[in-house]
Amino acid sequence: MKKLLAVSLTIMILGTLGGCGKQDTQEPPKVEIDYGNSELYTQEDMDAAIQVIEAEFATWEGCELHSLAYGGDAACSDENIEWLNGLEMKEQTEPFTQCILFSSSFHSPVEQRDAWDADTEYEGWQWWLGRSDGGAWELVTCGYG
Predict the structure, then answer these.
(1) Radius of gyration (C-alpha) of the chain in whole angstroms
(2) What CA–CA distance (Å, rounded) separates 121 from 80?
(3) Could you report the per-residue pLDDT of 35-77, keeping only the tens digit for each?
(4) CA distances from residue 58 to 26, 49, 54 in whole angstroms, order as listed
(5) How confident is the model at residue 28, as a pLDDT?
(6) Which one in 1, 27, 116, 136 has a CA-CA gap of 20 to 30 Å to 89?
(7) How far is the CA of 117 from the CAs of 1, 25, 85, 110, 143, in angstroms?
(8) What is the dihedral of CA 86, 87, 92, 96, to 10 degrees?
(9) Across all residues in the chain, what is the average pLDDT?
(10) Given this model, what pLDDT does residue 12 score?
């Protein structure tokens, strides 16, 4: 009987201590990606653009990105490429020959920060990127269009 009690207590103590020292391993929420259908861009092309968007978004303290959706091949028109080339870019070295549009939804911080309304879901936020002849994507502009 004493042995059973000792074993039971040992198991309880070990079970209690099992969670000690564990760090919070909760990953940030996954962003829902809608690649749509494209005859212009592969998923790899889109993923490269998404990485640029996510890198910029990571600088938005307290905001949580929920979704990104490809804006469709029609958005990649000569007119839009011309518009993007007309915007002043510090990093742009060559004129853009391709563009890509994503729209997003995200949630702003619970407390008021920067230009965001506190604790608000933003939907339809656009991300316009350009690149030259299959080079690296550059974020040109974002916002409501």
Answers:
(1) 24
(2) 27
(3) 999 999 999 999 999 999 999 999 999 999 999 999 999 999 9
(4) 17, 14, 6
(5) 60
(6) 116
(7) 65, 30, 31, 9, 14
(8) -50
(9) 84
(10) 46
Predicted TM-score (pTM) of the model is 0.77
Residue 10 and residue 66: Cα distance in Å, rounded? 45
Cα 141 from Cα 145, distance rounded (Å): 10
Rounded to the nearest 5 degrees, what angle is found at the Cα of 129, between the Cα atoms of 126 and 133? 155
| Dihedral sign computed on CA atoms, order 109, 110, 114, 115 | positive
**Do the Cβ atoms of 81 and 97 come closer than 8 Å?**
yes
Residue at 84: amino acid letter:
L
Task: Please check whether residue 52 is in contact with residue 139, taking contact to mean a CB–CB distance below 8 angstroms.
Answer: yes
Q: Which amino acid is at 18?
A: G
- Which residue has 């230009």 as its token pair? 115
Joined together, the tokens standing for residue 135 give 């080079």
Displacement of CA 39 from its chain's centroid (Å): 23
Owner of token pair 């309304």: 117
Q: Which is nearest to 118 in space by CA: 129, 107, 134?
A: 107
